């Protein structure tokens, strides 16, 4: 598979970038999984997780979401997990605590005391202290499972936001991740349930109004041609005014626009007020009802970002990506990143179901129509508060 190689130091030694080795960075489609690839410097990342779930208390029948929010906060506090309610914050939320909020895109059922909720993590380091963030996710999901009934609907989600540990992106890093997002879209589609391949909340970057119908090589050329983060963001998240999303938001005919509701959300790269600051989010994963599921998605995104953004990275757009090879590379990178408990990532890859589009259809295209409920929720979400951006700005002291 055309992918990435790194210059591997001995275990425990610092990785040093060597420009003379970057031309070895492409691996053959038929490379053996036992052939140790060469490695070059890969950046570390900070990440933030948004868990969108349907939650009901096991002991109390909350008639309003406020009561449920209070109980979730109380139980997390008792478990030693720092948190706060978004509804009580008039200023930016904390970058060091979990944020608890209601979620507008997830339908609630008050008559059954179930509400669409969102829990937003602090920003954590991916490979510097991996055991720390894995323990944190296990603690949160264990506490929720102990005191609440957790279920998932088609609108539930696991969003993983990432940004380089330095706090800002280099344009080449962002372009590298953008290419991987397009190149591996069909592979990643195989890892999610069918309803997350047609979701109005996670539209196809590969088949958006800007890239649709183009060969991969030309898509790469268009990415390389972007001289600004704003230009790259617009191309990756360009939404057609005539699409279901555009119609729901009342876009004028022909007035295509930037929208965050894509599998990979690059709109955050220009949301923090300066080029290179902000996060990129993978929005396609379904709701995570267990810690293992959430951990698997974080590992996948973190490892793919490291592979995509490492110095000298290259993909061959003329070769077809292979899920098996991609999975092997992700697991290999997890090992080199010092990830404990790689089982969740391996299990996620093993359960993949290849996408087989119906005759005459293009895999990954947006749904032909959306429901009245989705139409309304798109309007509600359009100006929704961006807790991740607030946490990011607080983390970097940009406010």
UniProtKB/TrEMBL annotation:
InterPro entries per UniProt: Amidoligase_2
Region of interest (Disordered), ranges: 1-39
Listed name of the protein: Amidoligase enzyme
Domain of life of the organism encoding this protein: Eukaryota
Organism: Corynascus novoguineensis
Bias-annotated ranges (Basic residues): 23-32
One Pfam family per UniProt: Amidoligase_2
